[in-house]
Amino acid sequence: MAVIAQPTPNPNAMKFTVGSKTGGPVTFRRGEKVEHPLAVAILATEGVASVFWTADFVTVSKVPEGDWATIRPAVESILKSQFE
Q: Span 39-44, mean pLDDT?
């Protein structure tokens, strides 16, 4: 299944459905020690504040000044490397 990005009611969060179990629920935050390789990669994306894994989706939250135009394609690429 393709990675599908969907807006949420929170303009600083976006849901990425991946179509298979992601593990969790668990939240990873920028600035904390993170050992999950995909979470590390997503958090390294400029503007990302946190990553929440659960069920078959990942929710990425950005800092208010972050830009979805650059964050979304980066996150999609990272998730596709694992889930497609």
A: 96
